[in-house]
């Protein structure tokens, strides 16, 4: 067993049974000119974490641990899109409608794809999910059981919606979960802060949080970043 220096207390984990889940780092949510920007959101808040998430992904690749990428999107015929979800958004711009990067959140459209900097490597799993949580209507549970995963590290967007939903789903299924604090973001900074507080409240009621550097230090047995010497 190893431990990550986390909040609210150290996160114990066995690397042999640990996987990374990267939630919805998609062009439509993150890139200027995408669906998120078209709805009036400041996508630079999300885009700034791309290099940090890339470092976390590279850490897991170096450690030889499983990585699962998710994308929120629907079938072109919208058969997996509930009416209640379809009604969300602006009347002129809903899921399935033509958007700046193709049909909005439709599998196979450019906007639904992961940003190029975080593209899955050969052998890494990519799951298209029709819901906010990654367990709903996907084989994620079966995949994790097959790989004998018990501990999950999370990154991605947005903190308070798809990331937190998936962590809560995982918690209910018995997984120990840790969220990379600087590898997740929201269009609303106050929502991210509230989500982090909720996740680690009451003795990690949903899970733990830690920085990417803290995760990398534990996984790769590296020393913490050097501090500047005071003269």
Main attributes?
single chain; 231 residues; alpha/beta; two-stranded antiparallel ribbon; 9 helices; 33% helix; globular; disordered C terminus
What does this structure look like?
This protein is an alpha/beta fold. It has helices at 27-30, 35-38, 44-47, 50-63, 83-86, 140-146, 159-172, 189-204, 212-220; strands spanning 2-4, 11-13, 18-23, 67-72, 98-99, 102-103, 125-129, 151-157, 176-185, 208-210. Helix content is 33%, strand content 20%. The strands form three sheets. A six-stranded parallel beta sheet has the order 7-4-3-8-9-10, with helices on both faces. A two-stranded antiparallel ribbon has the order 1-2. Strands 5-6 form a two-stranded antiparallel sheet. The chain is globular.
What is the secondary structure topology, with strand pairs?
Blueprint: E1 2-4, E2 11-13, E3 18-23, H1 27-30, H2 35-38, H3 44-47, H4 50-63, E4 67-72, H5 83-86, E5 98-99, E6 102-103, E7 125-129, H6 140-146, E8 151-157, H7 159-172, E9 176-185, H8 189-204, E10 208-210, H9 212-220
Parallel strand pairs: 3-4, 3-8, 4-7, 8-9, 9-10
Antiparallel strand pairs: 1-2, 5-6
Helix pairs in contact: 4-9
Let me know the largest β-sheet: 6 strands, parallel
In DSSP terms, counting alpha (H) and pi (I) runs of 4 or more, how many helices? 9
What Rg, in angstroms, do the CA atoms define? 18 Å
% residues in beta strands: 15-25%
Net shape = globular
Low-confidence stretches: 227-231
End-to-end CA span: 39 Å
Topology order in helix (H) and strand (E) letters:
EEEHHHHEHEEEHEHEHEH
Oligomer: single chain
- Which structural class do you get from the secondary structure elements? alpha/beta
Helix content: 25-40%
The total count of strands amounts to: 10
* Mean pLDDT over the residues: 94
Reading side by side through the largest sheet, how are the strands ordered? Answer: 7-4-3-8-9-10
């Amino acid at each position: 067993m190893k431990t990550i220096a986390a909040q609210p207390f150290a996160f114990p984990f066995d690397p042999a049974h640990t996987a990374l889940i990267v939630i919805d780092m998609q062009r439509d949510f993150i890139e200027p000119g995408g669906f998120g920007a078209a709805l009036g959101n400041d996508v630079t808040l999300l885009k700034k974490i791309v290099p940090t998430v890339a470092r976390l992904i590279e850490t897991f690749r170096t450690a030889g641990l499983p990585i699962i990428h998710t994308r929120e999107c629907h079938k072109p015929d919208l058969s997996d899109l509930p009416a209640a979800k379809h009604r969300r958004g602006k009347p002129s711009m809903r899921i399935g409608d033509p958007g700046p990067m193709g049909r909005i959140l439709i599998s196979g459209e450019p906007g639904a794809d992961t940003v190029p900097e975080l593209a899955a490597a050969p052998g890494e799993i990519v799951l298209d999910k029709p819901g906010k949580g990654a367990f709903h209507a996907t084989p994620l549970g079966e995949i994790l059981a097959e790989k004998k995963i018990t501990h999950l590290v999370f990154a991605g967007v947005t903190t308070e919606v798809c990331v937190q939903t998936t962590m809560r789903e995982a918690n209910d299924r018995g997984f120990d979960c840790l969220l990379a604090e600087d590898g997740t973001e929201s269009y609303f900074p106050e929502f991210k802060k509230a989500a982090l507080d909720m996740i680690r409240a009451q003795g990690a009621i949903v899970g733990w949080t830690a920085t990417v550097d803290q995760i990398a230090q534990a996984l790769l047995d590296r020393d913490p970043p050097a501090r500047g010497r005071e003269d």
